[in-house]
Design goal:
single chain, about 450 residues, alpha/beta, Rossmann fold, N-(1-d-carboxylethyl)-l-norvaline Dehydrogenase, domain 2, 3 domains, three-stranded parallel β-sheet, 18 helices, about 45% helix, about 15% strand, globular, binds 1,4-dihydronicotinamide adenine dinucleotide, binds uridine-5'-diphosphate-glucuronic acid
Length: about 450
Amino acid sequence: MAVIAQKCPEINVTVVDINEKRIAAWNDENVENIPIYEPGLSAVVAEARDRNLFFSTDVDAAIDKADMIFISVNTPTKTYGIGKGMAADLKYIELCARQIARVAKDDKIVIEKSTLPVRTAEALKSILDNTGNGVKFQILSNPEFLAEGTAVEDLLDPDRVLIGGDIDTTEGMDAVQALVDVYAHWVPKDQILTTNVWSSELSKLTANAFLAQRVSSINSLSELCEKTGADVNEVSRAIGMDSRIGSKFLKSSVGFGGSCFQKDILNLVYIAKSFGLNEVADYWEQVIIMNDHQKKRFAENIVKTLFNTVSGKKIAFLGWAFKKDTNDTRESAAIYVADYLLNEQAEIVIYDPKVTEEQIYADLDYLGTRSEEENRKLVKVVNTPVNATEGAHAVAVLTEWDEFKELDWNEIYKKMLKPAFLFDGRKILDRKSKEAIGFQFYSIGN
Ligand SMILES: NC(=O)C1=CN([C@@H]2O[C@H](COP(=O)(O)OP(=O)(O)OC[C@H]3O[C@@H](n4cnc5c(N)ncnc54)[C@H](O)[C@@H]3O)[C@@H](O)[C@H]2O)C=CC1
Ligand SMILES: O=C(O)[C@H]1O[C@H](OP(=O)(O)OP(=O)(O)OC[C@H]2O[C@@H](n3ccc(=O)[nH]c3=O)[C@H](O)[C@@H]2O)[C@H](O)[C@@H](O)[C@@H]1O
């Protein structure tokens, strides 16, 4: 929404959220205090805020005034009832639809921006059309393809913008055109795709499933590389140069994280199962099984390498975010690796340049594996990599922050217990130079 406001100064954009703390942070006088760390975002907000970009908790007023409403609320995996652990929980979407239906007094275009199961628009339409107040709604699907850490870049220069609508009717086509006109302020027209609503909804789940599947595919081969003397980076490079395969999303890692890959694949699996397509469901579920295996394998290797016990040993974690350049930790591999090692009674000291101590403890507490007191006893969060690594038995790199490449690894080595173990879960460190310093070096896939 900030980028739309920046690129379309004549359009008023109001972002509303029921979370008062978040809205207060978006309105913070110091634009560096906005609640999301994302390169370039604070500058975009600074340019548009209070000009044509507003943040508010007054949801009703914003609905009343709007011609277009983007529903962008969370769609987490269900934690209860039918579809528990698989299906998307659509209660927040439904609440929005009911609120729009209650408040709207004139015709509106309602846009699904959240990632939704295919055919959700049908349910939205049913809620919106059955209010009896004569207001007409057009429902569009406009999934978001930005990745965190590069969000602003991705929004300014997207590979494509996808808009699904009721393209068989004039009203539907008019609504699609209205949204095309917004993006056309900065996105070339041939990169704005229009489809029917169902294709648009399903394309979003499919895109995430394909991306995650590539990571799981290369991660599955990283294990084979470790057994055979092949190097997964070399394999990635060799296959990625085949233009039919392409080079992106072939970086082997400790496992993918983030709020969406797992949730969206589980959702796809659930939809396939609900249509009785068991082979389709099993095919995609394997992407998650492989990812869980990769995280566990990384943690197991630490225990095995440290002479089969980490009990009472200090392990330094460099990085907690699910990828670099974000403070988002949702489903981060680091959380699961930490949980595994804590079960083995390790003591973990964590440094991440952007993630707060409060967030790290919240992530561990959320798992419910042990008491809050125990998490605070076994896990410490520090402000510098040196504080994390001093006196450690092992260092594990869990996020690929650029600054970890530039650390003074000689100094770190000197202050660690010997033998000093270094586990690179992100393949950002060079083996030769680290072994020359004296580290026992372990990297995924070679
Ligand atoms: N985070 C990302 O990079 C991407 C997210 N998506 C999709 O976008 C959706 C949102 O994701 P996030 O922004 O990461 O989730 P989030 O959980 O960070 O934000 C959702 C916000 O919606 C607010 N909310 C919930 N119910 C509300 C209501 N009735 N009225 C007003 N506000 C309400 C919550 O307070 C929260 O601040 C999901 O469906 C996700 O799959 C899609 C592409 C990228
Ligand atoms: O729907 C969403 O939320 C978004 O999900 C992903 O974006 P995001 O999760 O923000 O970040 P990615 O760059 O896709 O990384 C996801 C995870 O995969 C890992 N990854 C990625 C690429 C790779 O080669 N190897 C690898 O391990 C990353 O470290 C990270 O943990 C998609 O890339 C976006 O297109 C999509 O809009």
